[in-house]
Write a structure and sequence with these properties.
Layout (H helix, E strand, L loop, with lengths): L1 H6 L3 H9 L5 E3 L12 E3 L17 H20 L5 E2 L7 H13 L3 H4 L8 H17 L7 H8 L2 H16 L3 E3 L2 H13 L7 E3 L8 H7 L16 H19 L21
Parallel strand pairs: 1-2, 3-4, 4-5
Length: about 270
């Protein structure tokens, strides 16, 4: 999949070309090193995170490096005078990690928000619920601090997105939040950096269970509702033309007064006796 991104065959690769957007891939931890690829930055922190059913998903050092990788991506975008940042992700099993984090951050029971991810059947969802419930019991610290939730239950990509979103808020760079995984990172960023969500635009409501709960916690009003569940930042990319049109209307559309439209003035207030 990393090679597919680099070769331009992934959904987000196509959408980035259509938008004329700068695009880069950051490899934070594939199981196998794909080797040097054009447009891919190798920040591999390990062959994926370890199982949070057994121990914290990341070491403190890995967490710091992943957060830093996200910040550096935003700094590169800022140096290139980018006006908008989109962070995407592609990870194996990361709806499980994002659901576990949502449970920890929102205080939810896993059976209320766990969804099928890439297509689990009923038995698969039940097993997923049991794994998340066991992890929450094993890592009570995750419910006490957002960084601990991220380190113990998250993934490298979720940590990098969290670092990126915090950096966007600190720099003042607007960011479009994609789907379920990205929203877990956005919620973590908002808990770490008060008012970070002031810089967030929310692209869509995904088909994954639990997404709406996180969006509600962030007081988000997503732009689209298309039942998407692809990730990669694809939903965020689809929202960009809508935002461009909104900005064009705001900047270029004449007001009634400017267009001398009849009835554009408010009615006079009748005198009082």
């Amino acid at each position: 999949m990393v090679r597919n991104f680099a070769q331009g065959g992934a959904a987000i690769s196509v959408l980035a070309r259509q938008l004329g957007a700068d695009f880069e891939v950051v490899n934070l931890g594939t199981l196998i090193d794909p080797g040097p690829l054009p447009g891919v930055k190798d920040y591999r922190l390990g062959p994926g995170t370890v199982s949070f059913a057994e121990q914290p998903a990341m070491t403190e050092h890995q967490l710091a490096c992943a957060l830093g990788a996200g910040r550096h991506a935003v700094e590169r975008a800022h140096l290139q005078d980018c006006e908008l940042f989109i962070g995407g992700e592609m990870g194996i099993g990361n709806t499980t990690a994002a659901t576990a984090m949502a449970c920890a951050l929102l205080g939810c029971a896993p059976e209320t928000i766990t969804g099928p991810g890439t297509g689990l059947d009923v038995a698969g969802v039940a097993r997923k619920v049991a794994i998340i419930a066991a992890a929450l019991q094993q890592h009570p610290q995750a419910r006490q601090a957002p960084l601990e939730a991220l380190r113990r239950l998250g993934g490298f990509e979720i940590a990098a997105l969290t670092g990126a979103y915090v950096a966007c808020a600190q720099i003042g760079l607007p960011v479009i939040i994609d789907g379920f995984i990205s929203t877990a990172a956005a919620l973590t960023a908002a808990r770490l950096c008060p008012h970070a969500e002031d810089w967030f635009l929310f692209a869509h409501t995904s088909a994954e269970s639990g997404h709406r709960l996180m969006l509600n916690a962030l007081h988000a009003q997503p732009l689209l509702n298309l039942g998407m569940r692809l990730g990669e930042g694809s939903g965020a990319a689809l929202a960009v033309p809508l935002l461009r049109q909104a900005c064009a209307l705001h900047n270029d559309m004449a007001t009634f007064a400017e267009a001398e439209v009849a009835g554009s003035q408010p009615p006079a207030t009748p005198p009082t006796s």
